[in-house]
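Exercise 7b. Backbone tokens:
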């Protein structure tokens, strides 16, 4: 089994996540790519993250009809910080695991817990992200495989911000995700009470 993992907060999942997952599956010949939302943050900070149930449900809706993309909730129930090395330990030894990530996330790899073990256990598949120089990244992580993907200047931060000021963001997310955001009032100024205060202080969520 050749498996890809795309981890993140997915607040909300958007078309760049889905395009990255599908590009990885195609270019690296993966059987499946797991979209793996991080659990609710465990440490307070000024940045809130929507509750995991919303982030999970949006991800599930987004991949419902997509072959080879699956949502995996194994990190959601874990207490405390999430470390990639622990997540990798939950896969059988004979499963070929690939970590799919944007270049911004890849920059942090050298500081991850047991980074050397992560790097020997999993193949790193990196997709471009605006503002990150791939030459610098290639020097930092020479073994990383750089996927050929259009640079998409989209982020969850930007979508949340657009939603909160009433700017159009409908076509940056799958239609079902747009409907979910609207139905639950996520990211609307009045809906911000639902966000739990806390950090993105896990290593894979910049
Ligand atoms: P936020 O702005 O809240 O951080 P995000 O769009 O960066 O949201 P994350 O959940 O943080 O989304 O990211 C999950 C993974 O997807 C990370 O590896 C990140 O680099 C990657 N990713 C997110 N957006 C893009 C994009 N536009 N192009 C390429 N990779 C992306
Ligand atoms: Mg991010």
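Sequence design result:
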């Amino acid at each position: 089994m050749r498996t890809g993992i795309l981890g993140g907060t997915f607040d909300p999942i958007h078309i760049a996540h889905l395009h990255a997952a599908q590009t990885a599956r195609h270019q690296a010949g993966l059987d499946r790519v797991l979209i793996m939302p991080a659990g609710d943050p465990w440490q307070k900070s000024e940045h809130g993250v929507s509750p995991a149930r919303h982030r999970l449900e949006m991800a599930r809706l987004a991949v419902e009809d997509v072959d080879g993309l699956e949502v995996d909730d194994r990190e959601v129930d874990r207490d405390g910080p999430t470390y990639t090395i622990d997540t990798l330990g939950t896969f059988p030894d004979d499963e070929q695991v690939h970590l799919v990530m944007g270049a911004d996330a890849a920059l942090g790899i050298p500081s991850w817990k047991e980074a050397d073990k992560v790097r020997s256990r999993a193949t790193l598949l990196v997709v471009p992200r605006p503002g990150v120089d791939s030459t610098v990244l290639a020097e930092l992580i020479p073994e990383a495989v750089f996927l050929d993907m259009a640079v998409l200047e989209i982020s969850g931060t930007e979508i949340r911000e657009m939603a909160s000021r009433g700017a159009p963001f409908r076509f940056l997310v799958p239609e079902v995700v747009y409907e979910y955001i609207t139905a639950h009032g996520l990211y609307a100024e009045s809906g911000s009470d639902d966000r739990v205060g806390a950090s993105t202080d896990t290593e894979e969520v910049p």
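Instructor comment: The chain has one domain: 2-153. The mean pLDDT is 91.
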